[in-house]
Design a protein that fits this description.
The protein has 22 helices and no strands. The chain is an all-alpha fold.
Length: 456
């Protein structure tokens, strides 16, 4: 039905308008998504399948929220909450400051070149993303470890958050859901897809984004300093924190070390040992509590300190996890109205050749990922259709699906409603929209370079 995609576009415009007017983002996304699904029902368009339908349509719409809550809280939501609690605990016991103190000694050589070091976070973080494929998980780990170090060197908080979110822009490797889905659609071994196609492209894109971030963040930070000189703001008094021993500096990076040592990528043990982000975080927390017990010798005080962890989890739930849930409902509403199908149909009927349609689809999936705040949702909607489109157009499926898969994860990095971006911005105490402004130029440039590299 033609009406569905047009109605979806109206809702997209309305949501953008309301968000610009600073309406509550969670409420706007949640209710617009629900209304779109209701409209889809009356237009007799297919809705997303529920795992456990209630038997009454009116109640089914509420069930969508329940299932989204359940799925997200059991998955990425739990990861985000545990990492946030861990970060709060590290800050409370002074471990974050200890890490900064230790890191600043060898990094002092970069004191006069802070943007060189900061920009190198992108390729280094991308390497870690292959082993730690959770975008939110890796970003929040880096927020706990790398963020305070590069801010101390003189880079703004906005620049630091933008660089950390950029490390999750290229979903590649055997553990990436998008890469696995792409390889499955192509009926290709994931290892062959990874080494033969993803690695060469990502090397080019990583160099592009690293160089562009150096100039973009330096430019924006200079403007930021000029604005602060014109409109100085009062600094909030800092809460005094107890100075921790230097050895505490290992605590924030302990989960990262555990994840790398026990990863399939490292392959250090004869039989695999499964350590996911949640396990690594909780081991790190328990280790920190043991350190505190030896340091203070007061069991009651150490047990009470656990409240900081729970409070950190609760704070991130109300500000970030709920937003991810609302964004999930919003994306379901767009899909139910045929927004993705409409974009696909348009690309097939505008008279472009095979390469032209491949370029249009890559751009569309980039935009869809921005709107949905999810690279997975955008790619899973488009990806399976590629073989049917590519064959009659005389284009190799891999030539079409490779840039689409990369565009899906890049689009998420410039979406103000993406969970990874909102979570990192919240911990960094900056605006997600301002982070998007920093990310937009490097990833539009990366998108252009990718299209030229892949099709010309």
């Amino acid at each position: 039905m033609i009406a569905g995609p047009f109605i979806a576009l109206v809702f997209v415009g309305l949501v953008v308008f309301l968000l610009v007017r600073k309406m509550n983002a969670i409420a706007v996304l949640l209710f617009s998504g629900l209304v779109m699904m209701v409209v889809s029902f009356f237009l007799e368009l297919p809705l997303s399948k529920l795992k456990q339908p209630t038997g009454l349509v009116a109640f089914d719409f509420v069930q969508y929220i329940i299932e989204s809550l359940t799925d997200i809280n059991a998955g990425v939501g739990l990861v985000i909450m545990i990492i946030s609690g861990f970060v709060a605990y590290m800050d409370k016991i002074g471990a974050s400051d200890a890490l900064v103190y230790l890191a600043m000694k060898p990094l002092s050589i970069f004191k006069n070149y802070p943007y060189v070091l900061a920009s190198l976070v992108v390729p280094l973080g991308q390497f870690l993303f292959i082993s730690i494929p959770s975008a939110a998980g890796l970003a929040l780990l880096l927020m706990a470890t790398v963020f305070p170090v590069i801010v101390k060197l003189g880079v703004s908080r906005l620049s630091a958050v933008s660089l950390i979110t950029a490390t999750t822009a290229f979903g590649i490797g055997p553990a990436s859901a998008i890469a696995l889905s792409a390889a499955s659609v192509l009926e290709m071994d994931i290892t062959a897809f990874f080494f033969g196609y993803q690695i060469p492209l990502v090397l080019v894109l990583s160099i592009t984004t690293t160089v562009s971030y150096f100039f973009v963040n330096r430019y924006f930070d200079k403007k930021l300093q000029e604005e602060e000189l014109l409109h100085p703001h009062e600094e909030k008094p800092k809460v005094a924190k107890e100075k921790a021993p230097a050895v505490y500096g290992i605590l924030p990076i302990l989960p990262l070390v555990l994840l790398l040592v026990f990863s399939d990528f490292a392959n250090l043990f004869p039989s695999p040992i499964r350590v996911d982000t949640n396990i690594a975080m909780l081991i790190g927390l328990l280790t920190a509590m043991v350190f505190e017990l030896f340091r203070k010798g007061n069991l009651s005080s150490v047990l009470h300190s656990l409240d900081v962890f729970w409070n950190g989890m609760g704070d991130i739930f109300k500000s970030v996890v709920t937003l991810i849930i609302a964004a999930d409902i919003f994306s379901k509403g767009l899909i139910s109205l045929g927004f993705i199908d409409g974009l696909l149909s348009l690309s097939q009927h505008i008279g472009l050749g095979g390469i032209g349609i491949a370029i249009v689809m890559t751009i569309m999936i980039f935009l869809a990922s921005i709107l949905m705040g999810s690279g997975n949702a955008a790619f899973f909607a488009f990806g399976p259709l590629v073989p049917k489109i590519a064959e009659p157009l005389g284009v190799k499926s891999v030539e079409m699906i490779l840039p689409m898969a990369m565009a899906a994860s890049m689009g998420r990095t410039v979406s103000p409603i993406a969970g990874v971006l909102v979570a990192a911005a919240t911990l960094g105490k900056v605006s997600p929209v301002e982070v998007v402004k920093r990310n937009l130029i490097p990833f539009l440039l990366a998108l252009l370079v990718m299209l030229v590299y892949n099709f010309l």
